[in-house]
Design goal:
Length: 180
C-alpha cells in the first residue's frame, strides 16, 4: 500500500502485479526439462485487488474431481525422456497451504489426463511421479478456496531407475541387437 498526501488529502494506492501468463489457457513455460535439470520459480496465486479487473490477479482455472476451488497458477513443461519428476512448494518462500497437480497434455497443450496430485498437509506440497517423454502442466493452487499467497515451485527431473531399464538391458544382451 502506497500512501501520499496532496493538499491535505490523504491518497492510498494499492497495487498488485502478476505474470501475463499463468492461466490454464496461457501457462508459464518452463520449456524443455532434461534429466538432471532443476527449475525454480517464485510466484503467487493472489486475486486482483478489490475493485480492479479480475484479470489482474489469478483465478481458479482448473476444476473437477482432482482440483480445489482456490486460485491456481499453471506452468507447462516438456520432458525429453522418461523421467522421475519431483515438484515441490515445500520451502520457506511458500506462505499458504498449497497443493500441486501434474497433468498430461498433448503437444498442442490440450488436457489428456490427470497424472498425480499432492496429498500432503501444511504449507508446502510435494509430488513425485514417473513420467513418459511428453508435455505436462504443473498446477499450483491453494488447498482451500481462500488459500492464497506467495510460493516457490521447484521442479527436478531425474532418470528413471527401475526394473524396466534393467530388464531391457537383460533382453538386449540375451537376444542381441536384432531382436524385434
Amino acid at each position: 500500500m502506497y500512501h501520499s498526501q496532496i493538499n491535505n488529502t490523504r491518497h492510498e494506492l494499492d497495487f498488485s502485479w502478476r505474470y501475463a501468463n499463468g492461466d490454464r489457457e496461457s501457462p508459464l513455460n518452463f520449456g524443455l526439462l532434461r534429466t538432471g535439470d532443476v527449475r525454480d520459480h517464485t510466484n503467487m496465486n493472489k486475486s486482483s485487488p478489490e475493485g480492479a479487473d479480475a484479470s489482474l490477479g489469478y483465478q481458479n482455472s482448473w476444476s473437477g474431481d482432482n482440483f480445489g476451488e482456490a486460485n491456481d497458477v499453471t506452468y507447462q513443461v516438456r520432458i525429453d525422456i522418461d523421467s522421475e519428476i519431483s515438484l515441490s512448494t515445500d520451502n520457506p518462500s511458500t506462505d499458504f497451504s498449497s497443493q500441486i497437480h501434474l497433468i498430461n497434455l498433448d503437444r498442442n497443450g490440450k488436457f489428456m489426463g490427470y497424472v498425480k496430485g499432492s496429498d500432503s498437509s501444511g504449507k508446502g506440497a510435494l509430488v513425485k511421479a514417473n513420467v513418459r517423454k511428453g508435455h505436462y502442466a504443473i498446477v499450483v493452487e491453494g488447498r482451500s478456496k481462500g488459500d492464497m499467497g506467495d510460493f516457490k515451485l521447484i521442479v527436478i527431473a531425474v532418470p528413471v531407475n527401475d526394473a524396466t531399464a534393467i530388464f531391457a538391458q537383460i533382453l538386449k544382451s540375451y537376444y542381441g541387437e536384432k531382436r524385434k
